[in-house]
Structures are given as structure tokens and as C-alpha cells.
């Protein structure tokens, strides 16, 4: 006959198992929903479900462009220390596996899609996870905003109210981001799919970091540069950036 102590031990193990099973799905649930990433000509909408990601391109007013919605499946999400891996079959070889790293989930406001994580494919998921566990670089990436945070972004300071002092502050933040990205590229030989895409992300991120609405496009940001580029201090700042490149 099972003793009281034995029964209690079994119940504790059972209760612990139930808690773990209940907890693990919540980690991936944090990323489920609709999210938006700023690009040079509008937005990219991400709809993340338990097994797929649907994307479509939008104009800056959130109306869809002509391009149809695209969908891709993934196998699982794996939470590591500083990143969550979105693991799927490789597009180049469906017998192998690749991962996208999601980082810096910020209270349902935004997360980032890392652009400098190890870009590799493996024959099994365990090896892929181990590669990421052994990767200790600082991850950088695209801001992807929650649908629930969009109204708050729109309430941030408008870009046309950005003063000369604000613009200099913006340039300092932007240049720091550029140099951090360049340092990473030199150290890890990181290849970026589109210089224009990630550069505009740095512009949008810098605006967000100093409290301005980051939902911009090339037309709205170029107007600000045109407004202030003849200022002597701005010329010096921009010149120092071009000299470092």
C-alpha cells in the first residue's frame, strides 16, 4: 500500500509537471498576435499564430498594398537566455533547420527580430539550439511593434515638431546605432540583406528612442534632413559620420 509520504511525493511531482506544462506555452504566447515593422515605404504586418507567420505590406496609413499576404510555417519556439528561437525548415534545404532570433520583448510594446544572429542551417534542431546557446554577441535587430501599442506611437511627438536641438540629439543617437552596427559587421562579418532597410530601421529606432513617432517613411525623414542640413553644427556631425564610413 502506498504510504502517505509516497502519495504526497507523487502529487508534488504531478503538480510540478502540470505547472511546467502550463508555463511553457505562455512563453511562445507572448509573441502571438499582430505586429508591425516600419520600412522605407510603409509597414510590414506580421500575424503570428502557434505554427505560422503571415506577412503583408502596408502603406503608412495601414491600408494594404497590392502584394498578397504571404505565409510561412515554423516548427517551434525555443526560449534561451537572451533570445527566443523561431525554428523552421530551411528554405534552401527542407531536410535542414534554420532559426530566427526574437529578442528584447518589451511588455507587449515591441520585440526585435535580430539581424546579426548566427545565420546557419543544421541537420537537427539540437545542434541549432546549441549554436545559439554558445553565441554571446550583442544582438541587434528590427523593432516590431504590437498592434496594441500603435495608438501610443501615434501620440508621440510628431516629426514636423522636431526642433534643431532635437535633430542634433537624434543624430547623436542615430550615429551611435550606426557605429554599433558597423562594429558588429566588422567583428562578426555580418551580412545585411538590405543596407537601405536596416539603415531606415536605425533612423526609425533613433526617433523612437528620443520620444518621436517612429512610424515614418523616406519622404517624412528626408524633409527633416532638408530642413536642417545647412546648419553648421549639423554639417560637422554629418561630415564626421561620412568620414568614419
Can you offer a commentary on this structure?
This protein has 245 residues and is of the alpha+beta class. The chain is 42% helix and 23% strand. The protein is built from 7 helices and 9 strands; from the N terminus they run αββββββββαβααααα. The chain has helices at residues 4-29, 125-133, 150-154, 164-188, 195-209, 218-228, 232-244, and strands spanning 33-39, 42-48, 52-58, 70-73, 76-79, 84-89, 97-106, 110-114, 141-146. A 9-stranded antiparallel sheet has the order 4-3-2-1-9-8-7-6-5, sandwiched between helices.
Computed Rg: 22 Å
Tell me the major beta sheet.
9 strands, antiparallel
What fraction of residues sit in β-strands?
A: 15-25%
Q: Strand tally, please?
A: 9
Mean pLDDT: 85
Molecular shape: globular
> What's the helical proportion of residues?
40-55%
Spans where pLDDT lies below 50 across 5 or more residues: 4-27
Structure annotation, total helices:
7
Class based on secondary structure composition and strand pairing: alpha+beta
N-C termini distance:
77 Å
Topology pattern, helix = H, strand = E? HEEEEEEEEHEHHHHH
> Strands of the largest sheet, in order across it?
4-3-2-1-9-8-7-6-5
Amino acid at each position: 500500500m502506498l504510504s502517505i509520504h509516497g502519495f504526497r511525493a507523487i502529487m508534488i511531482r504531478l503538480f510540478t509537471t502540470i505547472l511546467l506544462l502550463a508555463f511553457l506555452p505562455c512563453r511562445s504566447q507572448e509573441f502571438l498576435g499582430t505586429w508591425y515593422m516600419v520600412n522605407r515605404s510603409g509597414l510590414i504586418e506580421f500575424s503570428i499564430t502557434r505554427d505560422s507567420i503571415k506577412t503583408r505590406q502596408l502603406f503608412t496609413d495601414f491600408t494594404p498594398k497590392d502584394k498578397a499576404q504571404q505565409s510561412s510555417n515554423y516548427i517551434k519556439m525555443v526560449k534561451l537566455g537572451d533570445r527566443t528561437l523561431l525554428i523552421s525548415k530551411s528554405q534552401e534545404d527542407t531536410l535542414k533547420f534554420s532559426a530566427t532570433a526574437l529578442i528584447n520583448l518589451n511588455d507587449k510594446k515591441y520585440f526585435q527580430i535580430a539581424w546579426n544572429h548566427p545565420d546557419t542551417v543544421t541537420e537537427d534542431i539540437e545542434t541549432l539550439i546549441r549554436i545559439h546557446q554558445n553565441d554571446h554577441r550583442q544582438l541587434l535587430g528590427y523593432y516590431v511593434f504590437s498592434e496594441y501599442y500603435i495608438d501610443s506611437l501615434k501620440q508621440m511627438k510628431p516629426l514636423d515638431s522636431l526642433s534643431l536641438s532635437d535633430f542634433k540629439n537624434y543624430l547623436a543617437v542615430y550615429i551611435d546605432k550606426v557605429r554599433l552596427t558597423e562594429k558588429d559587421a566588422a567583428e562578426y562579418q555580418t551580412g545585411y540583406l538590405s543596407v537601405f532597410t536596416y539603415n531606415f530601421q536605425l533612423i526609425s529606432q533613433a526617433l523612437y528612442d528620443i520620444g518621436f513617432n517612429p512610424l515614418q517613411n523616406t519622404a517624412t525623414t528626408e524633409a527633416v534632413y532638408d530642413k536642417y542640413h545647412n546648419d553648421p553644427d549639423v554639417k560637422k556631425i554629418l561630415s564626421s559620420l561620412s568620414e568614419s564610413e
